Amino acid sequence: MLISALIIIALAFGGMALTYLFAKDESFMWRLAVGNVIGSAVLGITGFVLALLFGFGIATVLVAFVFTMLPIVVLQKHERRSKFLHDWAKAKGKVQGGNLKRFAGFGYYAFFVILFWLFFGQTMYETASGIFTGGSNNLGDLPFHLGAILGFTDGSNFPPQNPSFSGARFSYPFIADFLTACFMRLGADLQSAMFLQNVSWAFSLLVILERFSAKLTGSKLAGRIAPLLLFSAAASGLYGLLKIIGNRAKAFGNFCGICRVITRSPTNFAGAILWSCCLSPNAAFFSECR
Fold it and tell me: Quick one: average pLDDT of 203-215?
């Protein structure tokens, strides 16, 4: 898991540097969220093109990784470097000291991190009996994505063929699966790569949507509400989620049970379709939510 975490952090910083070319007044966290998406996309696309030309080896992935980190050089310009240092200092200042407003903001993001961590932990897990998933709607998606990922790492599937239909062109948007394969080439294990990618992409979406909604409406409160509606699939899903929490979360330890209820009982709330079909598979925000 450490290798996957380090790769994601590096990609986020590499992509974040590009945000200083087009966004002037944004928070450090927003830049990291956007940078995570940009860095992941650049590594996936660059690595795929290089793999087509030179084969999918560790050298290919390392070259693509270095290319993805090149945008950091834009921070050498004094103006951009000063802005970066200012954003970093401002971000540190927000986590220092304590008051109700800062605690509420921290609690908002902490809630989603815990939710993402517990939910995506059910995407794939291994036991002595084999590979399992906690989402009933993911029973068909998970083998498909595993076939795509392992087809890249072990099957030299270039140009890629559909993992379900031999000889058929792979018309599915597979860059997210290829990116997981890149992580594995760099030493990460499959389960942690899928898990941390999903958690980081989900959190990036949260931050980006929150900022977009706040700027669109001119209301920070609307920005905070928008991700709640998205991840609960509109108001009916939010109501169902709160109902589940009220009925089942008698202790914090039962929170894991909430995630299982969400994925295994789609009739309990409308958001199950979004969570288990779109957000749970490895293709998360690059493929499923296209």
Answer: 94
